[in-house]
Amino acid sequence: MVAAPTIRPAARRQPLPKKRRQAQPRNKTLTVVTALMVAYTLLPLAWLLISATKTQEGLLDSFGLWFADDFALFDNIGRVFTYQDGIYPRWLLNTVFYVVAGAGGATLLSTLAGYGLSKFAFRGRRAVFAVILGAVAVPPTALAVPTFLLFAKMGITDSPWAVIIPTLMAPFSLYLMWTFSNEAVPNEILESARVDGAGEFRIFFKLALPLLAPGTVTALLFNVVMTWNNLFLPLIMLKDRHLYPITLGIYTWNQQSQTVGGDVVFNLVITGSLLAVIPLIAAFLLLQRYWQSGLAAGSVKQ
Amino acid sequence: MRMRMTRRRALLGAAMSITLLAAGCGSSDDSTDEAPAATTVSDADVEAALQAGGNLTVWAWEPTLTKVVAQFQTKYPKVKVNLVNAGSGNDQYTALQNAVKAGTGVPDLAQIEYFALPQFSLSKAVTDLSAYGAKALDGTFSPGPWTSVHSGEKIYGLPMDSGPMALFYNKEVFDKYKIAVPTTWEEYATAAEKLHTANPKSYITSDSGDAGFTTSMIWQAGGRPYKVEGTDVTVNFDDEGTKKWTGLWQGLVDKKLLAPTPGWSDAWYKGLGDGTIASLVIGAWMPPNLESGVKAASGKWRVAPMPQWAAGEKVTAENGGSSLAVTEASQAKTLAYGFLKYATVGDGAQIRTDEGAFPATTAQLTADAFKNKEFPYLGGQKANEVLSEAATQVATGWSYLPFQVYANSVFNDSVGKAYTGGSTLQDGLKAWQEASTKYGQEQGFTIK
Lengths: 302, 448
Prior knowledge:
The structure holds two protein chains of two kinds.
Chain A: H1 28-51, H2 56-61, H3 73-86, H4 88-119, H5 125-137, H6 140-154, H7 160-168, H8 171-184, H9 187-195, H10 200-229, H11 232-237, H12 246-255, H13 266-297
Chain B: H1 7-22, H2 43-52, E1 54-59, H3 65-75, E2 79-84, H4 90-102, E3 109-113, H5 117-122, H6 143-148, E4 150-151, E5 154-155, E6 158-159, E7 165-170, H7 171-176, H8 185-198, E8 205-206, H9 211-221, E9 226-229, E10 232-235, H10 240-254, E11 258-259, H11 266-274, E12 279-283, H12 286-293, E13 301-305, E14 322-326, H13 333-344, H14 347-354, H15 362-366, H16 368-371, H17 383-391, H18 404-409, H19 411-414, H20 425-442, E15 446-447
C-alpha cells in the first residue's frame, strides 16, 4: 500500500528551483538505490494489477508477474461487485464513511489540539504533552481488546461508533500538528491580531488554519491511510457483515479458502484489493498537490 | 448421608449448591446435585418454544447453514434467526471469548470445532445440553464426533459434521509413475520415495507443521497424549503411539519427501492442482474444497482408505469437524436447543448433507442415496462408501486439551522447527508438551 509522506520542516527553507542551476552531477549510487526502491514499491502493485486479470484457475497455473492466457479483469470486477448479493460496494461505502468521519474528525481534533497546546500556556500542559507522547508509543492494536470491553459496557460494539470513536484519537497526528504549529504559526501574527481585536476563533480559522494547511493535509493523509487500512479494530468490534469496511470484507473472502466447504475466490480477493487501493492512490495524488502548494505557502517571513 | 436429610435441609442444600455453582466454584462431588435441574426441559417444551417464536443469533462460518436457517424459518415462521459469520475458527473464538468476558453481545449458538469445544465447556461459556434431553440422542451420531462433544457425562454441543480421515490421491500422478495406492504406512513411505525420485518436483503430500494433522495422526497411531479429568490434565507425548508416528514422519522429513507448502495457502491449492502435491491424508469434508479450490484437477482425484499401521487393520481418526453449541449467556436456551436439534439431527442434517457437508449423523451416513452418490470431480467414484466406512472406524479414547486453541497456536514454535531441520519431531513434541504444561499451570490446571 502507499506510505504516507512526512513533512520535513527543513524543506521549506530549501532554495527555490530556479536557484538550482549549479545542480550537482547525478550521483550514480543514489540513482541505483532509488531505482531499487521504486521497484520494491511498485512490484507488489504490478503483481496486484497483473493478478487481477486472471481467473481463479489462471492464478494458480501461471507465473505471478506475467499475464495468463485468459484476460478476466472485467469479468472479475463484475463478480466482485455482484458476489454475495453485491456486498462489496456496501463495504466500500462503509470504508469511505469511516474515513470521512473518523480520519476527518481525527484531523480536525488534532489540528485544534495541536494548535492549542502550542499557542496557549495553561496549567498541566506538560502533563498533557507527556500523555500524548506516551500514547504515540502504544500500538492501537494493543488497545483494541480493552476498548472492546469498554464499548461492550456502553453497548456500542457492532455499531459504526465502535470504529469511528477510537479512530478519532490520533496521538501521532496531534504531535505532528503541535510541532507544525510551533514552526508555521509565528506568535507575532497572533499577537498583532489580538491587538487588532480579533477573537481567538477568528484568529484560528482566518490566520492559523491557512498557515497550518500543509501540516493539516499531511495529518489528514496519515489518518486516511490508517483508517482505510485498519483491519484489527473492525475485526474485534464488528460482527454484522453490513458494517464491515473493505479490509475486513476482503479478509473474510480470503478466509473462505481455509474453511471447510468454503468458496475459494482468490481472484475476487485480489481484484477486490486492487479496487480498494485505487481510491487511496487517487486521494493521495489529489491531496499531494495541496500539500506541495501548501509547502510554498507556508514559507512565512519572520 | 444426603439421603437422611430432612426435606427442608435438602432444599437448603440445593439452594446452597446453586449459589456455589453461580459463584463458579462448585466442587466436583456435588455434580449429582445438578441432576435435578436436568431433564426439566422436555421435547414438548422445546416444540412449544419453537412455536412461540423469538430471536436467535447464531455465530457460524459453515456455509451450508444459510440454507438450513432459511428452511427453519419457513417451518417455524415465528422464530427469527440471525446468522452471523463472526470469523472462521480462531477469529471467532477470540470474538466469542471477548463477548463472554464483556458479558454482552454473546450469541445464542456458536459453531465450535471439536478441538476447541473443551476450552469453552470448561470455562462454562457453553451450556450443558443434557438438561434439554440431549442424552436421548445417543446413537444418533457416529461415535467419533459424539464422543467429541462429551465432557464426562455432560454434552456441550451437537455434532454438525465430521471428518473421519481418508487418503485423497491424484490418480493421474499415481498412474503415471506406476505407484500403487498405499494401504499401510510402510507402503506410503515407499510410495513417497518412489514418487519424489521419479519426479523431483512431486511430493506425496505437503506438511510444514500443522497441529490438527499431527494430533489426528497420533490419534490413529494409538497415541493418547492428552488425558483430562475435570481440571486434572495429563500431557505426555512419550507414548508408543506418538513414537510410531514420529518414526514414520521423521523419515519422510529427513529425506525431504514432504512439500514444504503451508496448508490452505494459494501455493497449496496450486500444488493440489498441478500434481506436485499428489495426495492428502485428511478429513472426509475435503471434496467440496477440492471442487471449489482445485478446479484444474477435476476428474483426477480419488479417495482410498487411510493407510494402516499393520496390514489388515481398520483404524481411522477424526480430523477437523465442528459442533454447534448453545451459550451459557443465551436468554433463550430452550429455543436455541430447538434450532440446534433442527440443524444437526432434524431436517438440517439432510439439507446440509445435500449441500455437500459430510454428516455426523448415522442416518445420513448409512443412507443408500448418500453412499451411492457419484462425485463427478472424483471421476464418478462413489467416495462416500469409503468415507462413511471410515466414520465407523474412528479409534476411541481420544481427548483434546481444555486449552487446545492456545496449544495449537504455539505448535509451530516448537514442532514447526522439526520441519526445517532445527529439531526432531519427537523433541519438538516434547517442547510443545512443556509449553502446553506451562500454560495449563498458569491457567490453574493441575498438570501431571
